[in-house]
């Protein structure tokens, strides 16, 4: 048997995972990796932190070199080498040496495409001053630009990477403006969850402009769509990425409806000798079963390994994508998995929504940090559709647990059953994830109907009364206008003070509200619990205010 | 309809969860809680930390009072009141006021037993000097004893709570001796995982005596079974607890084979009007389906709520118990779920065992902390049977994720598929849990056979050669005696240097060993990977040394 020739295009996360796995599975194959950039296996997720000086050494970003991969895995890794054409009939790829322009034709038995994605650059005047942070060359350019000591920076796009850019530029001491087209930061999560993140940025001195876009970039300022001008000596853009499909499209491979390379359940493209993985490829969404573009390193690595398995004839199973992600923003952790409320409601899904505000661990052990969690549940099946968390310590843990529960097919109510590690400095006897399960179970069982923060106004207009069951000290720190106030511990004795009609009950976080709703329901009252209590309502209202403030600033 | 009379015996975790849930479900019931101690709903898991001064205020431990529970939930909570007899035919309980000795007969429609557990006190000379930390009275007594400023302390029992005692006494500045009957600390985990915990204690100045028991306690010293004497001005014991079943047994309720109260799948005892929950009750083990005693606060809380649901006619499902637990020891986090290797091997289960040594997050982002993980897998089904973690940041997260995967019925290989939240300061693109999945999959697929640290000697005796593929710098820091050393990156070119026969390949943690085994296997060699690499082997050998050292100290 002659040795197999495996050719891989793209030498970062997915491509290099495929190449090293292929070697482990086939010691005798010829394995060649072509990488257009100057580096392979670099730490793309670390780039913003190198820019910010948190990661001090550039060499830390370079995890492997062509030489190290050659000696350990017998790989022929060619950097600064672009695959310019695929001849599918001949099963060859034309590779161009970007230094010399020389072209070589490389035959393959199996070809893996891992070309990744490219940052989107909206066309605008001065747009060429917008730098991105997608590879080592990008960060080298950005670092060079910072050498002239700009005082001000503009970041375009408040997604996960955009906020990492902001944090790191603030860390470097720059005065930063953040412009985002959506009316919130972090569009993948919901506005009432994102509001506190925007506020944290504002508190750190960032000029946050929501519902706005950049229309022109000048020498050291930029003009926004609302007509205002912001300082912008240094400009970074992170408004999204698009799959790098040019080579695949030119070779006539099928693309999907979302514009990524289409692959089957074995990661194989429309050509039986070509597999594709990573950001360039459409995944299957775990919630809808529909095609989805997800640019996440974990999936790229995983699929690289699976493609190698498939190529060497092993059975593989590609799991549908949840899109779990996390970002650190000025000491806050923000994490999400699955779908958000905006998308689910836009799809007309019948959902239940739960907000909680637990502490990272028991209140009696020092150092507990607060967090807000949100759970999205199918109203018909109790299936978990998504979760979000914002706060201090332990947010990433809870989202990981929920993502795992989703992978295991647990219902929202079953979160109550999870046996999670408890000692007072790590969690509570009822972990925040258990509590979400309890809340979901009370709703699933019809025990405590609830209402969302954005539904309160309409309910009040329809005649409902807001009943605040917090203590006077809590009420003094802020309350819903027009609410009736009776502390929970007095409620049982003051039922006759309640007006006719529906009662929207709330406490600070929802737990006493639940007790109050149960009490009232058993006294024959129509009572609903304001989900997430005053804290969620306030976060939602504040998030709206931020947008209004931004509009006012522009006017 | 007359209102129901619910009587609950025991007012801490399980009992109070049952009482408050009963109120939420039945506003009109009479709910009475009898508590033998002086306090209800206290923070029993916080007691060691109050002793150590980490929790400064005693009041922090008292989460609720009879008064607060009365006003909020309309509960009749009677502390210092002992249930002395149950008349099952009459459906009454005789309650004795411990202050006055007065007895009252209380009728019930439903009775909930949540009497908890009591610390075991091995009989010995001077044993009455051994204090425990099981309730508020215990901690008050201990604090009073500490007022005379003892310089030395003896802790008997190196389980989870024993180690919390040690940490807190060290924190208070005492010179601490720890005596444990088993040949390791933390018997619920395996010795090679527990070794580094014992070493950490030794490094903190604790005199750790393994495989030893206390035979007599004198005025300010104690005598051990090996004949040695240790200082012991202050003595705390934590050698386990037994279910408090005296009342239940006297009432003729069925007990189980493990000595706990027997309940059915609806938490009902052998009497249809009596339910039981918490430490006193036998749970069903999630791995074996057999009865099991598990004294964990999370299960008590959960079952209290479920019992209330069952009593009020709701459908409940009690999930079998995994026994997930965590403890902090001198900056180390130790967590476990499910079964350990010792128990599984003693049962003759056909298992696969995996050790890894990942970092809490990417190496290129500052502050990553190391950890060791262990996964126990059914060799036939790939089902996860247990997991253990020891290390810094993020150990609790990984054990929680694995416990959730177990609850969801995911196989070990499916851990590779989990989409966990990744950014460089939180995890790696392949999270440590994903890596366990990859390792498990390589074993399940037969790609990389492995050998455990405790099997090396026998394999070498049978003619195998240990092949160390680490770099010379690593080898210089310590190596397995008699090993052949060829760095992985040179292995492909130096195959002819290898001796005949089986090769036991190892690197530092197992990953390069896996690559080497794949390489060697495809060159026709019989090669196995030393699971967990040098680090696990060293931890196992060191753990044995600790016991030998202790024996030598005694001799």
TrEMBL record, chains A, B:
Domain Rhodanese: 460-546
Membrane-spanning residues: none
InterPro entries tied to this protein: FAD-bd_OxRdtase, FAD/NAD-bd_sf, FAD/NAD-binding_dom, FAD/NAD-linked_Rdtase_dimer_sf, Pyr_nucl-diS_OxRdtase_dimer, Rhodanese-like_dom, Rhodanese-like_dom_sf
Origin superkingdom: Bacteria
Pfam families, per database record: Pyr_redox_2, Pyr_redox_dim, Rhodanese
UniProt-listed SUPFAM superfamilies: FAD/NAD(P)-binding domain, FAD/NAD-linked reductases, dimerisation (C-terminal) domain, Rhodanese/Cell cycle control phosphatase
UniProt KW keywords: FAD, Flavoprotein, Oxidoreductase, Redox-active center
PANTHER family assigned to the protein according to its UniProt record, in alphabetical order: NAD(P)H SULFUR OXIDOREDUCTASE (COA-DEPENDENT) (PTHR43429:SF1), PYRIDINE NUCLEOTIDE-DISULFIDE OXIDOREDUCTASE DOMAIN-CONTAINING (PTHR43429)
Name of protein: FAD-dependent oxidoreductase
